[in-house]
Amino acid sequence: MMRNKYVNALFFIALIAILLVINTTNAKDAIRTTALDISEGFLSTANFLFFNFSSGITKLKESVDVYKEREHLRLENSRLKTQLIKFEEMSRENERLRSLLNFEGQIDFGGISAQVIGRDMSPFSDFIIINRGKKDNIDIGTVLMSHEGLVGHVVSAGENHARAILLSDNKARVSAIIQDTREAGILEGTPMSLLKLKRLDITSSVKVGDVVITSGFGDIYPKGIPIGRVEQIGNESNNLSLYALVRPFVEFAKLEEVLCLRKE
Residue 70's pLDDT is what? Predict the structure, then answer.
């Protein structure tokens, strides 16, 4: 207890001494100077921090603006690319349709263009669906072709669409002739990309490169429509006739538009 009183007394005496020192002019100036130094240092540091913070905010805002501008330009570039692709696709479609119309002028049948809207293409069957039907006078037996040549014919029709078998289907049959020699045979589809022209006479003069066209003999296809070109010739297994493998002019897997032929 006595020790605590002794400590308190010393603290009191020291406090009085400090107060007496503070009352002197030199002490006041020293304290004022120290305070100013501390304040100046604090203000300098605060100013430095504020300047760098403001600069950082400005740079961040500029970065955000640059990002937004780049994103806008990227989106605009994508939009223009998409538009260019659409224009190019329209141009190609118009070119194909013009080719169809030009070919239509070379034959004795009227026609109407149609778009391919569905496919059923496998190793065992090749069919397409077109966006024309009975309301367009398209019915079973309507012949389809492209600007390259014969495509096939309609096997079923609804009011607004029709289903057609392609020449490449293994059930397809067409009476055909060699354009130069006029030799006739039966053309049928195969699981390969080639068509097979059968029943050629064993003495046939058919050769690689000959053009094959429709004969118009007893079937639904009119005479003179191009089919393809001979790529290979061989003997049938009975050695009594020849056959020719024909590369079709039409790329059936790439069909997008066809011309539907109808007799006037």
Answer: 77
Where do runs of H (alpha helix) occur along 105-129?
none
Decide: 212 and 112 in contact? Cβ < 8 Å. Answer: no
Non-local (6+) Cβ contacts of 181 within 8 A are 204, 205, 206, 210
178-228 confidence digits (pLDDT tens): 999 999 999 999 888 899 999 999 999 999 999 999 998 877 899 999 999
Prediction pTM value: 0.60
Q: Which CATH number fits domain 111-166: 3.30.450.20, 1.20.58.1970, 2.40.10.340, 3.30.420.10?
A: 2.40.10.340
Q: Domain 173-253 carries which CATH code?
A: 2.40.10.350
**What does the DSSP assignment read for 186-228?**
EEE--SSSSEEEEEEETT----TT-EEEE--SSSSSPTT-EEE
